[in-house]
TrEMBL record:
Belongs to the BLOC1S2 family. It comes from the Eukaryota. This is Biogenesis of lysosome-related organelles complex 1 subunit 2. One of its GO terms (biological process) is lysosome localization.
Length: 74
């Protein structure tokens, strides 16, 4: 019985070691990707600000167009 338990724990130790190695590998890959992910976040923020500016500009141009139409009728 003890040998079976010892073998089982040895297998569990190997599995835990493999999981630890995999997690370290994933952590290293994430660390390498982190600067790119931060750049993506910055680009996304810039795009959102640009989109908001475009909507404001569109609304402003529509108001100007309406004012022009009103003034040109007179």
């Amino acid at each position: 019985m003890n040998r079976v338990v010892i073998a089982k724990y040895a297998d569990m130790k190997q599995v835990a070691a493999k999981i630890t190695a995999s997690l370290q590998d994933i952590d290293n890959k994430y660390s390498e990707l982190r600067p790119y992910l931060e750049q993506i976040d910055q680009i996304e923020d810039s795009v959102n600000k640009l989109e908001q500016a475009a909507y404001k500009l569109d609304a402003y141009s529509k108001r100007l167009e309406n004012q022009y139409k009103i003034l040109s009728r007179k």
